[in-house]
């Protein structure tokens, strides 16, 4: 019988060896899984991206339209308002009988004096004639005339500074001013209300029963927009028939000067002395305001308002992505359990759902950027504007969509990663 030696203590078992290499999820596999998850339910994915599309599209469109409109506002504002200088008269009323109009403080050759200043392209006198008690009609017979039309007096230099766009006929010339001719320029609105449709027969209108030959009809003006609802007669004719300008603010004489771009401030500093070297204090010169301050305030207000709306859309889009991703986590619980049982780690599960939500946000950002750019181009083309798209606002827009998708998918991804594989496999 053979004997055996003493039985020693049982040997200790070492750590269990792995059955295979650790599981890995490469970038290519991760992108493929995310793409499959997005394409698995295309309808849901489209609806999920809708909020991001609207938010990013609104973001790009708002900034693009604001920049485009600012450029147009700046061009129109700079070329019109920034090239207009006005001078207001303060007539001396001492010794003037009650009820009589005082003489104008402007000299008779104001147009020539202002026109000799370097930088002035056109300048002249104008004033509003009180028309409440005037009868303006298309026929000489008595009775009520056409109401609501304004009557202006202007010298040829003032008409040139206003720069009306003629639809028919000619404008006031120096001869009409020198001869005090009874002629009139009608706005298109005034011509329509007075029944003036053509000028080849030299039609006339009647003001206080006196005829005025219509020599032209205009439909646009660069300055003095109030004249779009009225008519203009020569200043000399108005002095003969209606007397001197009044003293009220809306009846006082004014000089309007159109200047070259950049010359308005210099011209404003010289006008009062050039017109009245003996008493420049009788005239008040108004230089154009700084266009950039007003434009910047308007632009910032509009941008802030619409960016707030775009931010709301982005929040709605983020909530939609988070909700859909969370629903996908709940629906795919068995799949998560199967992946975990096959060796997928928690970080793999979290990365998968984060990539899906980020992909949805990126696609929404790309589509929204395209729609925003197309909106800016369409609006600019329809209004004959030059589209302005800032690279700093357009290029990062898809990345904003990606960030929205990434943030929206954080909670669902964490919840998916914490799913217990056994519970998931049992369908719980």
Automatic annotation (TrEMBL):
Belongs to the ABC-4 integral membrane protein family. Keywords: Cell membrane, Membrane, Transmembrane, Transmembrane helix. This is ABC transporter permease. Signal peptide: none annotated. It comes from the Bacteria. Residues 308-421 form the ABC3 transporter permease C-terminal domain. It is a multi-pass membrane protein. InterPro entries: ABC3_permease_C (IPR003838), MacB_PCD (IPR025857), Macrolide_Exporter_MacB (IPR050250). The chain crosses the membrane at residues 46-67, 305-330, 351-380, 392-414. Residues 45-246 form the MacB-like periplasmic core domain. Residues 89-98 have a biased composition (Low complexity). Residues 1-27, 89-113 are annotated as: Disordered. It is found in: Cell membrane.
